[in-house]
Design goal:
The complex is a heterodimer.
Chain A: H1 2-23, H2 30-56, E1 61-68, E2 71-77, H3 79-102, H4 109-128, H5 132-150, H6 156-187, H7 206-224, H8 232-235, H9 241-250, H10 252-268, H11 270-276, H12 279-298, H13 303-323, H14 327-358, H15 369-372, H16 374-388, H17 394-408, H18 412-439, H19 459-477, H20 485-497
Antiparallel strand pairs in A: 1-2
Chain B: H1 3-21, H2 26-51, E1 54-58, E2 67-71, H3 73-96, H4 106-122, H5 126-144, H6 150-181, H7 186-192, H8 197-214, H9 223-229, H10 232-257, H11 264-287, H12 291-315, H13 320-354, H14 365-368, H15 370-384, H16 390-404, H17 408-433, H18 446-465, H19 468-477
Antiparallel strand pairs in B: 1-2
Helix pairs in contact in B: 1-2, 1-4, 2-3, 2-4, 3-4, 3-10, 3-13, 3-18, 4-5, 4-10, 5-6, 5-10, 6-8, 6-9, 8-10, 9-10, 9-12, 10-12, 10-13, 11-12, 11-17, 12-13, 12-17, 13-15, 13-16, 13-18, 13-19, 15-17, 15-18, 16-17, 16-18
Classes of the chains: A mainly alpha, B mainly alpha.
Chain lengths: 499, 478
């Protein structure tokens, strides 16, 4: 199985090596940089395709490297990691296209794309992590590699936003580290195994395990933006649009949510977590975050801030699904990892297009933008309707499974009201935007950077949101097709509950 | 068979002599000498790896009369650190001193310092250790004074007095041991040490003297001034190697000569001082207005971690768990050595290009000096203890040991220390990413930027991802 062992390393290297090479490129060599970027992204996509097929066939993929006694770097692919890897690989490709167009003519692009690639490498490493130590390692590297991206513009605002981001995530990382070390002291090296590994520990340790769970959830909750650990996310909005897309849909927030899923299913095990009684507090925290985030989003006039609070709310659906004991809840949470990603990245691309093309940053400036930029606005509308949960866009599928799962688990009493309230709030902050965009007459644009010609904006900015919007639509329409996110989530649930 | 040890000490000594005799060729002599002694360190390293340890009695006399040399895992790792850091520092020093009128004074002193370090790591005899300690202190003081400014002279003078006081303490302890046991060989003394007044008095005097030289809080008062006023290559060597030598001796004495005489409260006291050093040093680094001062206070804090490790080492009973803590302490010392020398060299580059090292006015460094900024970031990652640096692995083991002993206070201190370190590192990087650019000519001299970058990579990538062998090495050789 030599090839299958090196496959995981190749997946990491396909973004790491181009990224390192890009650091050494002169600022002026645009073509070579673009070529390297696209080559890495496409190669990774192919490799991940091979991996997906292999994991579907129940082939095992593993690479180990000893760093210190008891501390092993383990890369391992299972159904859950494939879900996250393929999401971030696909969206990375689209975001790279977008970023190349977005940053055209701006300085320090070699630095930007270098760290951009490092960031994706860290995300993929985190997705493929086979034990808690490796996860923590990549979790911290992700923090480090995103800092320069958030601070990229170099204005006082960006540097401040980046500092706040760093303060939150490093503190969170530290709490996670303490939790992980403590857990390893009790249970030895913690490998991720479907069904969990901790249920064999003697009962007198259960008290400590609850405390460790709390530490891990705090550490992961910072990146997943669980209230009250979400403060960095709206502040990090100063970053360039592709970075926001990356933070919200591909890498950082997702890393936190993915970590929560990992810890609950593959470290503690869903049944053992339910026995320990830690699922209900997690569910309540997620529910509070969902409602709070939506309520705050309602009050924002700044478009990116509104989207940021919307992320706070939407990502917690994943945590909520995790906290619902039962396969349907699991499916709803896990599938939302993908669905939220494609929908939210569409929204951020569109918001970036408004800002780059017309200088629009506020909701109140969007009047009539649908006629000036119909395709961008179409993509935005699909994303927004999906977030509200209107069929046939993907968001509906997630909410449906969460709702049914909650009923099955006997948690309908409080989960359903939360879902309904949040959907109403989602509608309340998205529908006015759509109304303004499509039905209000246009005024003067704040600053028209790209003059209307054959296309509404630069092609490299236009295609990515259209592609991701189509993906969001397809994930809902063809939810029961083979290899759809839903089908894959069902595969994961099957493997989690039947082992 | 063991000429490697004699060469390791002898070559830099000869080099120092040669550099004095032919000052015009001193640069060439310096680099060649260090390459040569580096090669002999590698040879020695291979010997220790194969046999576990190496002995030699110079002069052919019996132990006790001759100059006994001894190398094991700990000393060969420290020698390797010294060799690599010294080489990088020397390459950088050629560029750094080019602007200075009289560069020939640097090389003899610098080679003498390396010889003293190598001698210290190889001596198996308490009195020879004293000799190397004095030689090390004197050459370090002279190098510090090379800055030539009034502040550097003053700092060097204070450094000299502190160093002499520390050596006196150490020597007094050695005298007591010789009077009590009639030998100076470390193993023979170690075999006879017990809980008696002579042993305890010697332990106290020697440890106190060495702590003064190692600048453990609150005996660190001399360090920030000395390390921040020396020329950049000298600062790098002082922070990365010279204070490490003091720590090495404490570690060696505590674990091989005095283990019987050390009481639990003594160990706790060292640990408490280590904690105070972490917090105070990091806090002062955060307050510092100048880069070099920041780096110097960061050294105070990082030494704290080593002493916390020393305490955990004393608390842990012999066994695999203790090996882990021992390895963690060594790994942290090595990582800090590489990281701090990288940081000081990078600061030197920034200082020479910007004309100053005031942190608040360094906006735009990332644009003008990308490789140097990257070196600062790599060093910073190691200082904070984030992956993929060696310090991350070390910190993981220290945290694990603290939790195993129920020492939650230590966990808290290490956590706060890491966050403070992150705050002072990213305060610098935040400015570096700022837009306002300082006036500077573009850098295209590899020998100026590469040494810092290489050292930073060693601290953060090599020791983090490629140090798995180190643990077995320590186990085999111990």
């Amino acid at each position: 199985m030599n090839l299958s062992n090196s496959l995981l390393l190749m997946i990491l290297a396909s973004s790491l090596l181009p990224g390192l090479a890009i650091f050494f490129l002169r600022e002026g060599s645009h073509r070579l940089r673009t070529w390297l970027n696209m080559f890495g992204a496409l190669l990774k996509l192919v490799l991940v395709g091979v991996l997906t097929w292999g994991v579907f066939q129940e082939q095992s993929f593993e690479t180990r490297w000893l760093l210190a006694p008891g501390l092993e770097l383990v890369l391992h692919a299972d159904a859950l990691s494939v879900l996250f890897v393929s999401l971030s690989t696909l969206l990375w490709l689209v975001t790279t296209v977008y970023a190349i167009a977005y940053l055209e003519g701006s300085p320090h692009r070699s630095r930007f794309f270098g760290f951009f690639s490092l960031c994706v490498t860290a995300t993929v490493g985190l997705a493929l992590a086979g034990n808690l130590f490796t996860f923590v390692l990549f979790y911290e590297i992700l923090t480090l590699s995103t800092y320069p991206l958030v601070a990229h513009k170099g204005s006082a605002d960006s540097v401040r936003g980046a500092r706040i981001y760093l303060a939150y995530t490093l503190a969170g990382g530290l709490v996670l580290l303490v939790g992980a070390v403590w857990l390893q002291n009790l249970a030895g090296p913690v490998e991720f195994v479907e069904g969990g590994v901790l249920s064999q520990l003697p009962t007198e340790l259960h008290g400590q395990l609850v405390w460790i769970f709390l530490l891990l959830m705090i550490g992961l909750g910072v990146k997943a933006a669980l209230v009250p650990l979400h403060g960095w996310l709206p502040k990090a909005m100063v970053a360039p649009a592709p970075v926001s897309a990356l933070l919200h849909a591909v890498a950082v927030v997702k890393a936190g949510a993915f970590g929560i899923v990992r810890v609950v299913y593959d470290v503690y095990g869903i049944e053992f977590s339910a026995d320990l009684g830690v699922l209900l507090p997690l569910g309540v925290a997620a529910a509070l975050t969902i409602v709070y985030g939506s309520a705050r989003a309602l009050m924002q006039d700044n478009l990116k801030k509104r989207l940021a609070y919307s992320t706070v709310s939407q990502v917690s659906y994943i945590a909520l699904g995790t906290a619902i004991f039962g396969p349907l809840g699991t499916i709803g949470g896990v599938v939302h990892l993908v669905h939220q990603g494609v929908m939210k990245i569409t929204l951020f691309f569109a918001a970036g297009n408004y800002a780059e093309t017309l200088g629009i940053h506020k909701v109140s400036e969007l009047n009539g933008v649908g006629r000036r930029m119909p395709l961008t606005t179409l993509a935005f509308s699909i994303g927004a309707l999906g977030m509200i949960g209107i069929p046939p866009v993907a968001g509906f599928v997630s909410k449906w499974y969460l709702g049914v799962g909650a009923m099955q688990a006997g948690m309908a009493g409080w989960v359903l009201p939360v879902l309904i309230a949040s959907s109403v709030l989602n509608a309340a902050y998205f529908l006015p935007i759509l109304y303004r965009a499509w039905f209000r007459p246009a005024g003067a644009w704040p600053a028209e950077h790209i003059v209307h010609s054959k296309r509404e904006t630069h092609a490299g900015l236009l295609w990515p949101p259209l592609i991701t919007a189509s993906l969001a639509l397809a994930a809902g329409l063809f939810a029961s097709a083979p290899f759809s996110p839903l089908e894959w989530a069902e595969l994961i649930a099957q493997r989690e509950y039947l082992r | 068979m063991n000429e490697a040890m004699a060469l390791t000490i002898g070559l830099p000594l000869l080099g120092a002599l040669a550099a004095t005799v032919w000052p015009r060729r001193s640069r060439c002599i310096g680099i060649l000498t260090l390459l040569g002694s580096g090669a002999s360190v590698t040879w020695l390293f291979a010997l220790v790896m194969r046999h576990g340890e190496a002995w030699q009695a110079l002069g052919g006399w019996q132990t006790g009369l001759s100059i006994a040399l001894h190398a094991d895992a700990l000393s060969s790792l420290m020698l390797m650190l010294t060799a690599l850091v010294a080489l990088a520092v020397s390459v950088y020093a050629i560029r750094y001193f080019r602007a200075q009128p009289d560069t020939s004074r640097f090389w003899p002193l610098w080679l003498l310092l390396v010889a003293a370090l190598n001698g210290l790591f190889l001596s198996a005899d308490l009195f020879n250790l004293y000799v190397t300690l004095e030689l090390l202190g004197l050459s370090a003081v002279a190098l510090t004074a090379l800055g030539g400014k009034r502040e550097s002279i003053r700092a060097a003078l204070r450094y000299l007095l502190v160093g002499l006081l520390g050596s006196m303490g150490y020597l007094a302890g050695v005298a007591i041991l010789y009077a009590a046991f009639g030998t100076l060989d470390m193993r023979q003394v170690g075999a006879q040490i017990g809980v008696d007044p002579a042993s305890e008095m010697a332990l106290l005097l020697m440890t106190a003297g060495l702590l003064l030289k190692t600048a453990l809080f609150p005996l660190h008062f001399w360090l920030p001034a000395a390390h921040s006023n020396a020329p950049a290559p000298v600062s790098a060597a002082l922070s990365a190697l010279v204070v490490k030598a003091g720590f090495y001796l404490v570690l060696r004495l505590w674990s091989e000569v005095f283990p019987q005489a050390i009481s639990a409260p003594g160990a706790m006291l060292i640990g408490a001082l280590g904690c105070a050093a972490i917090l105070w040093g990091s806090w002062q680094a955060l307050q510092a207005q100048r880069l070099k001062l920041l780096a110097a206070y960061s050294t105070v804090a990082q030494l704290g971690y080593l002493f916390v490790g020393l305490m955990l080492l004393q608390l842990t009973p012999a066994g695999p768990q203790r090996e882990l803590v021992f390895g963690a302490v060594i790994l942290m010392a090595l990582t800090h050595g590489f990281a701090k020398s990288s940081l000081f060299l990078a600061i030197g580059v920034v200082q020479q290009h910007a004309g100053h090292d005031r942190i608040a006015q360094l906006d735009g460094t990332a644009q003008r000096l990308p490789a140097t900024t990257f070196a600062i970031a790599l060093a910073g990652v190691a200082l904070i203890g984030l992956p993929p640096s060696g310090a991350f692995l070390g910190k993981w083991q220290l945290l694990s040991a603290s939790l195993a002993h129920g020492q939650w206070l230590l966990v808290l201190v290490m956590g706060i220390g890491s966050l403070l370190a992150a705050a002072y590192v990213f305060r610098v990087l935040g400015h570096a990413f700022g837009n306002a650019a300082f006036a500077s000519r573009p850098v295209n001299v590899a020998s100026e930027e590469w040494p810092a970058l290489a050292l930073g990579m060693f601290a953060t990538l090599v020791l983090g991802l490629g140090s798995g062998w180190l643990w077995t090495f320590i186990e085999v050789a111990a």
